[in-house]
Amino acid sequence: MNKTRKTTGLAGMDGVLDGGLIPGRNVLLRGTPGAGKTIFGLYFLSAGVEAGEQSLYVNLGEPQAYVEETAEAFGLETEGIHFHNLSPTSEQFAEQESYDVFESAEVEQPEFIDSLRTVVDEVEPDRVLLDPITEFRYLTTDERQFRKGILGLLDYLKDAGATVMLTSQAGETVTDEDLQFLVDSVVTLEVTGDSRSVQVSKFRGSSFRRGKHYYGIDDEGLTVWPTLVPGEQERSIEPGTLSSGVPELDSLLGGGLDTGTVTILSGPTGAGKTTTGVQFLTRAAIEETEGILFQFEEAERTIRERADAIGMPLKKVLEEGCLSIVEIEPDAYTVGEFEQLIREAVRDGVELVMIDGTQGFKQNLRGLEDPTAALLRVGRYLRAAGVSTILVNEVHNITGDFRATEERTSNLADNLVFLRHVEYRGELRKVIGALKMRTSDFEHSLRELEITPEGIRVGEPLPQLRGILTGTPDWETADVPDETNAKQD
Question: Does the pLDDT at position 81 exceed 90?
Answer without folding.
Answer: yes
